[in-house]
Specification:
By secondary structure, this protein is α/β, with parallel strands linked by helices. Helix content is 31%, strand content 22%. The chain has one domain: 3-Layer(aba) Sandwich (Rossmann fold). Bound molecules: S-adenosylmethionine.
């Protein structure tokens, strides 16, 4: 789903910066101060227009959420939605994540969400997949003990790749299904924009939850 770039993106982001953290690397180790409380912090990498993470924030006022989205045009939509809902426990940041350790101290996160991550189908681009071992090493560092990663996709090859990477990385698979919405798993309750679209096309959603 290619997005048309909005005109004056920087200006528009500046107008909608109430829920935007502009320099996330400067908040490393200080995320609880950003939220102003001691609640657990959860992150989503590649949040798109924010439907999923905003739903979680609404449902769990006692948890904090920080969502990363590299595209300014797309994150703008998430920021606008956050303003409409007036939540106190969520921030977004316009950043293409390369090394998660740039943004979080060891053990700073309670959980990580990866939803419909770009598949990067060519082998030579495998390292860019957010479920590549090089990212998993980083997630392991920034998650606290017992912290979980939840991953959803419609893409069979990416799901097989991710499952192998999780296992090779010594992560414990807690829940796994090739048809999330045919189960009673709680992860089906908060959906993403891509999830809704693929479901409306009759595609099955693959899901797994692993513990570090
Ligand atoms: C296929 S879309 C899925 C969006 C959303 N998670 C959903 O399920 O509707 C992937 C999104 O991840 C963003 N993205 C890709 N790589 C990223 C990275 N390394 N850091 C942050 N965002 C990224 C893209 O800009 C895009 O909006």
């Amino acid at each position: 789903m290619r997005q048309r770039k909005v005109k004056n993106e920087e200006e528009k982001l500046a107008e909608h910066n109430l829920f935007l953290v502009e320099s996330p690397a400067e908040q490393k180790g200080k995320w609880r101060e950003v939220f102003g409380n001691e609640n657990d912090v959860y992150a989503e990498f590649g949040c798109g227009k924010g439907q999923f993470i905003l739903t979680l924030a609404e449902q769990n006022p006692d948890r904090n959420y920080i969502a990363f989205e590299g595209s300014g045009t797309i994150v703008l939509r998430a920021l606008q939605k956050a303003e409409e809902r007036g939540l106190k426990n969520i921030f977004f940041t316009k950043e293409y994540v390369k090394d998660v350790s740039d943004y979080f101290e060891a053990g700073e996160l309670a959980g990580i969400y990866l939803n419909f991550s770009d598949p990067w189908p060519k082998d030579r681009h495998a390292k860019r997949r957010l479920t590549h071992g090089r990212y998993l090493d980083g997630y392991r560092r920034i998650l606290k003990e017992g912290g979980c990663i939840e991953f959803k996709t419609d893409n069979e090859k990416l799901f097989a790749f991710a499952s192998e990477e999780f296992t090779n990385n010594g992560m414990r698979i807690l829940e796994v299904t090739e048809d999330l919405h045919g189960t009673a798993l709680p992860a089906k309750a908060a959906t993403t924009e891509y999830e809704d679209k693929f479901r409306s096309e009759g595609k099955k959603i693959k899901y797994c939850k692993v513990q570090v």
